Amino acid sequence: MATYAIGDVQGCHEALQRLVQHIRFDPTKDRLWFVGDLVNRGPDSLGALRYIRSLGPSARVVLGNHDIFLLAVSEGVATLRPKDTISDVLEAGDRLDLIDWLRHQPLHYCEESFFMIHAGLLPQWTTHDAAQLAGEVETALQRDGFRSFLRSLFHEPVVTWNPRLIGTLRLATIARVLTKLRACSRSGKMTDFSGPPQEVPPGYEAWFNIPGRKSADTTLITGHWAALGLHIEPNLLAIDSGCVWGRQLTAVRLEDRTVFQVDGLARP
Length: 268
Prior knowledge:
Radius of gyration: 17 Å
Structural class: alpha/beta
Number of helices: 8
Mean pLDDT: 96
Low-confidence stretches: none
């Protein structure tokens, strides 16, 4: 049995199929961990979502920002932009089943020495803290009133994390950290910077480079930062290698950290 962590698929279903063939994935004994952003920007979000859902217990998924955006659009909370490629999901006959399945996926997954989230953790959060905070959002998403959380996430002002935050603003702030964090200040203030790490604005650092980060004793598996590329440290597997931008889709076998890659979407 082998477990493979897979980077941001973003609707690149064909590349995902080549990758699972490359690793000789056997759903009867192997497992795939998906680091989020299953959909959007690539050509076949519907195919990717249907395939990953079909894997059942052979797959573990955490939600990324694009997955939550799909939920928000499906509920009329957010609107499609010209660059979005999730209309195939929204128009599918099995849309309701797919959306319901996605809404019941977590924002974190922890097993043995590994902790998987889509983006990153604030320096003051331990993985225990992060698991509890993620659980608050997961519970909200699975309740009937989940649209209130989505409205807050997409329409309320962005604030810096404070443990005294309450209500939907608290949930939205937690979700932004877990699904969008790339760089922050040492006090935990986020920036929306998305470029390469050597160009992080003054006063901010890559979240995983913050001195004294309280999650540094656990191996974190993340995606989200395509401009960072594949980045492996003793306690970090950052595996968004930019498949949808014409680079690679990556799988890392967790037992021995062997890296497998296939070429991603060709760009003109």
